Amino acid sequence: ANGILSVEAATYDALAVTERIVTVPDSIDAVGDINFNEIAFEVADGFMFSLYFAIGNRAFDSHVEGSVAASDVNRDGVPLTVEDFVLLTDVVIGTASPEDRPTPSPNVATFTWDTVTGVVDVATPDTLGAVWLVLDGYVTPTLLADGMQMHATGDGDTSRIFIYSLDGHTIKSGDLVSILRYPRGIFSIETATYDGRAVTTAL
Question: How many other CB atoms sit within 10 Å of the CB of residue 71?
């Protein structure tokens, strides 16, 4: 069974899910209402969205289709991206508008995994808002990025680590996470700038 290794900052029970509706939003006004309570861009929307990167669609309870549609915050036609998440949290804390359409960063974020120490670090000229790693194998991670929060899950075959903030903290070049139980490899790494721009990654 899937097990959450660590979920910092809040609990699922704290989410403000007041209605359980299975439907697809038919209006762009639903964007940002991840928890489907008819109030968009709340902290609870950000937290529920953050859980997606650790446990997938189970984070959305009985309103999966609606939450997926509402997650396309930058309205580029691609839901459930890291840049959507960061833009949503920026709107929540007041540093962005729901009408913003951030363009991709021209820069590359280069990630390095030290197989001796287990540390994953990043080198980038950008300031990042979140990082999502999907690893081959079950790992035990320790968060190293100052001021950030982390969700981490593993099911024996795949581990997911999401490093994020709901209150405006950011990631600069340096150590991200230490992996005490080494994975067989890294499937993917996705990231976005602090203002919700997509970033090309290299490993």
Answer: 24
Q: Read off the pLDDT of residues 140-190 as tens digits, 9 standing for 90 and up.
A: 899 999 999 999 998 878 999 999 999 999 999 999 999 877 677 889 999
* Span 76-101, pLDDT tens digits: 999 999 999 999 999 999 999 999 99
> CB–CB of 197/165 below 8 Å?
no
Rounded to whole angstroms, how far apart are CA atoms 197 and 104? 5
Chain Cα centroid distance, residue 18: 23
User: Distance between CA atoms of 35 and 64, rounded to whole angstroms?
Assistant: 9
As given in the structure block, the two tokens for residue 35 are 């928890």
Contact between 152 and 4 (Cβ < 8 Å): yes
